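Last lecture ended with a question: if I hand you only a sequence, what can you say about the shape of the protein? Today we answer it with a concrete record. The protein is Putative transcriptional regulator, Crp/Fnr family. Below, first the input exactly as provided, then the predicted structure, then a couple of comments.
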Amino acid sequence: MQREDADTARLIALMRSSPLWSDFSEDDLARLVTSGAVRRRKFGQGEVVVEQGNYEKTFFLLLSGRARVLRDNREVAVLAEPGTVIGEMSFVLGKGRTATVLADAPTDCLVVDMGYVDFLESPEREDFLIRIFRRLAEVVAQRLGSANARKAELFTAIRERREKLRSHIAAERQVITALRRELESLDTTDDEAVLRQLLDRRF
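The predicted structure:
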């Protein structure tokens, strides 16, 4: 019993490392953990954490390690910050995973099975969902804000590169124009005619 209590306390402490659970009391988290809905899982490098298209009610909290996010086999993000939420969109949207996540190094996660709420009675179920959705909305909003900031950086970089390219092209055009003018100024018609005559002459 003491060992189970210690395991529960450790899992709750790990959950508390994420603001996702800030609206939940110790009793709330204890019930969630003791129900078996929360467990710790380690992934080896290259192991699939979630797979695009699969529908599951689980999501993950990254404790340590690093993971790559692939959408249609194209890498779209790398996750390495402890506390990062992984795979929550399937639970929120009620449809298949929107991306595949692969462990890019030995990775330690908390797995949270939101099938837990199916066994709660009303109004406790609704109250739980309101609180978790509120926090997940903040996670998604923060992620969107970061993505938009990165988009702005990329647009700026593209614009600067484009301007540099235009300047470079303009400079190269000036060089080419100067070379053409120099080429046109070199009248070698007479020399070419003399050379042909000399080559055709028989000695």
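Comments.
1. The mean pLDDT is 86.
2. The CA atoms of residues 193 and 199 lie 10 Å apart.
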